[in-house]
Design a protein that fits this description.
Two copies of one chain form a homodimer.
Chain A lengths: L24 H15 L11 H8 L3 H14 L2 E4 L3 E4 L7 H5 L8 E2 L12 H14 L14 H15 L8 E4 L1 H13 L3 E6 L3 H9 L3 E8 L2 E2 L4 H8 L4 E4 L13 H14 L2 E5 L23 E6 L11 E4 L2 H15 L4 H12 L2 H27 L4 E3 L6 E11 H10 L2 E2 L1 E2 L10 E8 L5 H17 L1
Parallel strand pairs in A: 3-14, 5-6, 5-8, 8-9, 9-10
Antiparallel strand pairs in A: 1-2, 4-11, 6-7, 10-11, 12-13, 13-16, 15-16
């Protein structure tokens, strides 16, 4: 990663490094910088000192400072501006710290890409599943959970994934986790400081989770055929050996493209030749509209691919349930980390989900949701054509969000603010890049949690907001 | 901690250290040793190489090896035998690895100390709370959870803790976590490699969680008046400054004694004078039988004490719900770690628990449970008097477990095995020490999950097992 070095006229950072501490100097420096940004001590838009100047102040190597800046750029705390230096990101950035704070007021027309239709959560079916669980579960189910997950759920997931995604799944190689967020956490711990190539653009919160557990992230560019797998060799030559590659092959997050079949093959070949790991985040695989679904890559190389899934897009993020299907050699390590993290997921909800899947209600809910989301996607495409002249929509063959290319680059933060004033929530694509692009022509718009009239009205207002700029 | 150095005739350990890795050498060495024990590559009872010999093999300082051995002794992977060296702990030890494996068959008369009465889980009340939640919760409750926990639950916990434990609790300083296990995880992350004094004997799984997140543990001895708080100064002089002290003042885990009032005062004075943190694990505070409950220490020094609670002893470990009441300055850091760990606990169960507490059903359940457990405790005391001549029961004024002093030291593993053959599960106190005591006269016996006739029969069989030895 190329890191701008800033100027020497930056502020005093008041960072203290403890050479005797168990944590390394780089981790301490990164923590110090994060704290300073979070606390507001380093205000938004402030220019950081040049890496050379800070290295000299702290008595550390310049490389260490460059790496630390690079890490915080990746996490969204900092922003590099070519030729101008490194700056503290806008407080409205996409860092973990920002996400921790309650959004002050949710806009009425919120195109947040992470949600399914929250009003469509199957409350009755879920209550029935809970009632059956509380009636039938043996007393021992109320003791400490199996850290791998309830066997009933692992069985149901294995059968489901085999059937709908072609995943080679065995209950013994599945670990149930608290959503994809904890899946990334567990994998980063198991990879133990390994170097992970991540799609760029990608999802900043996932990068922040990986980085917080010591993963070294390198950006793997994405084009209209998905992640540029051929770049891996050059990346490894420049950065060092790559231990794992995180991809979203079915529907790239956020661009929405599918990973082209030759690239899928090339990625698996890379994994085989380099003893590397592919992390296949199949986050919204359940939603396909215009094209035949491709089976998961994991089915082709179960010993090289970690498959990740979640109910956050099928039922609700609030359930905090996801799963990892692991190569056998990783199972013990991941289970051990899960045990040390929280001793396992709550049992009753796991059994309820197993009941929902095994009894067919999960499939029925998905079929109904697919129809609903397809209509909302069509409404988005129509509304963009009507209210955003010159814009086009991409990435809509699958999933719950689309990319809207405005046809002209805009300042993403200013657009967010202008849209916010009209009670519309939009999400600039530029902030999904590791090296944030404050000015870009892309927006990531989720459409699943808005009814068709709200989509129409939201896009109409977005058009007005663009005129405001 | 004094670490036996072993002999130089130990096995080749086949450990590799990567000097360029982001993780420190000590952490790598510890991980390598843990892996080797877990995988069975280092078999139980094997003598490890002398620290000097291993340091020379690996090209690291002897201090580093001594520290790593010390850490694994603390976690229960290794056992020191005075004058004989350092050995791999018995596979039946209390390490995290052992706990991860399903217990092959649960004994019929299992005195496992961690359980409430699992058959008494309030299934109907819980289902009613879930039904009310699924009926009343707004759609947004199905989105991503607040990483601090649902506000409704934080309010209910604050009110409950103020009322029953004298805790100074504000919903803004409470973080809901996945049981005490995740509470320890979050605190260790927030303390960031800090040195924590932990009661010795204590709970090995909790030590393992803290150590896995980089905490440096030092043992604080316990006597009949609780943790020997006066030893803190000497400990700090020997080991270095102590950042936090983990105590179980209401009912020491596992000895069952209460922290004497002068020691409570001395501990708070230590915290004030040393800018130290007290972690008050109030794990079974709801159960008091023969003495007036002392309010939580936190009420006296809310800026110096982290209060921890859980429903694992009041409802069920399977719910994975607990809470931290934090000094204000720690809240942001802990919330940030929670966000990066799993994005927050599942919302529906949090709302159900809030409903249970606020509606009074939680209090009713506790009152009923207290009567039930008191009768079981009395049954244990009577059964010991009848079937274990020379033994005495201590630590029974509160909680869900007792210490049985056999009147003679026995080999804990052999007794466990002999009892297991008679389908009785017992838990030697010697394995709760950081420096494991394979031969000791204490047993930790939980009585809450066994009906009175089962307690009577289990203790009768334990008497037979003792005769077998």
């Amino acid at each position: 990663m190329d890191v701008e070095t800033g100027t020497s006229s930056g502020p005093e950072l008041l960072l203290e490094l403890d050479r005797d501490a168990r944590r390394g100097l780089r981790a301490q420096l990164e923590d110090g910088l994060r704290e300073a940004v979070r606390s507001g001590r380093l205000a938004a838009h402030l220019r950081l000192p040049a890496t050379r100047a800070l290295a000299s102040d702290l008595g550390v190597s310049r490389r260490l400072v460059v790496d630390a800046y690079g890490q915080l750029l990746a996490e969204g705390y900092l922003v590099a501006r070519h030729g101008a230096g490194t700056f503290v990101a806008d407080a409205a950035g996409t860092s973990a710290a920002a996400a921790a704070e309650p959004r002050p007021s949710v806009p009425r027309f919120d195109f947040f890409p992470g949600f399914p239709d929250l009003a469509n959560f199957p409350r009755q079916a879920w209550l029935r599943a809970l009632r059956a669980t509380l009636r039938d579960a043996p007393d021992r189910a109320f003791g400490y959970p199996d850290p791998r997950g309830a066997l009933e759920l692992r069985r149901a997931i294995a059968e489901h994934l085999r059937r709908v995604r072609g995943v080679v799944a065995d209950p013994e190689t599945i670990v149930v986790c608290s959503g994809a967020a904890q899946g990334f956490f567990l994998l980063a711990r198991a990879l133990d400081g390994g170097r992970i190539a991540v799609e760029d653009p990608g999802l900043p919160p996932h990068r922040a989770i990986l980085a917080a557990q010591g993963a070294r992230l390198v950006p793997l560019p994405v084009d209209e055929r998905g992640a540029r797998v051929d770049d891996l060799a050059a990346l490894a030559a420049a950065e060092g050996p790559i231990d794992a590659v995180l991809v979203t092959p079915a529907h790239q997050s956020p661009t929405g493209v599918a990973l082209a079949p030759p690239r899928r093959a090339a990625l698996l070949a890379w994994a085989g030749e380099n003893e590397g790991l592919v992390i296949e985040d199949d986050y919204d695989a359940e939603y396909r509209y215009d094209r035949a679904p491709l089976a998961a890559m994991q089915g082709l190389a179960a010993d090289r691919v970690v498959y990740m899934g979640t109910v956050s897009k099928t039922l609700a993020p609030a359930l905090r349930l996801g799963w990892l299907v692991l190569p056998a050699r990783l199972v013990d390590r991941v289970v051990s980390e899960k045990l040390l993290a929280d001793h396992g997921c709550a049992t009753i909800e796991q059994l309820a989900l197993a009941h929902l899947i095994a009894g067919g209600a999960y499939d029925r809910h998905l079929r109904q949701a697919r129809r609903r989301y397809r209509a909302r996607r069509d409404a988005l495409v129509e509304a963009v054509a009507r209210h955003l002249p010159g814009a086009r929509v991409t990435g809509v063959a699958a999933g719950l969000h689309a990319i809207v290319r405005l046809g002209q680059a805009v300042d993403g933060m200013r657009l967010m603010q202008a849209a916010g004033r009209r009670s519309v929530g939009v999400y600039p694509l530029g902030y999904a890049y590791m090296d944030v692009r404050p000015v870009d022509d892309g927006l990531v718009l989720g459409y699943a949690n808005l009814a068709e009239p709200a989509i129409e009205e939201g896009i109409r207002r977005l058009g007005r907001a663009l005129e405001d700029l």
